[in-house]
What we know:
By secondary structure, the protein is α/β, with parallel strands linked by helices. It has a single domain (8-223), classed as Vaccinia Virus protein VP39 (Rossmann fold), CATH 3.40.50. The protein contains eight helices and seven strands, in the order H-H-H-E-H-E-H-E-H-E-H-E-H-E-E. Strands 3-2-1-4-5-7-6 form a seven-stranded mixed beta sheet, sandwiched between helices. Helix 5 (97-109) links the parallel strand 2 and strand 3. The longest helix has 16 residues, at 8-23. The radius of gyration is 17 Å and the shape is globular. The mean pLDDT is 95.
Amino acid sequence: xxxxxxxxxxxxxxxxxxxxxxxxxxxxxxxxxxxxxxxxxxxxxxxxxxxxxxxxxxxxxxxxxxxxxxxxxxxxxxxxxxxxxxxxxxxxxxxxxxxxxxxxxxxxxxxxxxxxxxxxxxxxxxxxxxxxxxxxxxxxxxxxxxxxxxxxxxxxxxxxxxxxxxxxxxxxxxxxxxxxxxxxxxxxxxxxxxxxxxxxxxxxxxxxxxxxxxxxxxxxxxxxxxxxx
Length: 229
């Protein structure tokens, strides 16, 4: 076997191989991405292999109720909605009404609209309104990075012992390791990771990723102590 240095060409070739072999073509997901791009939204949805990871984590954890913070065009929402049972629910929060409308059309076209509740508004405003509902079994955080620590606090509050929490984009192209950064997104990411490392409500780890979206990372945590909603 010949080893290669992880250049962009090689890691993207590996990502395409993984996606072709383990994910395959999916007209509904591809249509969701096309609709997102046609609407002028940024090309920042999760890579196919990461969408499949979310799907499998939801199934492995037996999730019935999923909370997603950051809907965008609904690509990851579709992956999550396919993972919950027919009577399950994905509550997804999107700050931009236009984005939510595009996502709703794509989610409905994929045949999972009955399982998805889109709440429009900033996470900091919507999350408190969910207090008192049945706890969430899995939380996916993929919104403004400046608010990661806030979102993680609410993940614990709205979850339960055993809730799985996934935070996307924690590698920031390597910038997350720069303690002197002035980027608000990187600072927010570092604060979120520090919370995961220090807060007794969580046990967590993080992995670097090299995929269609470049060099980044994902944090995966388990709620091990109850939060207070």
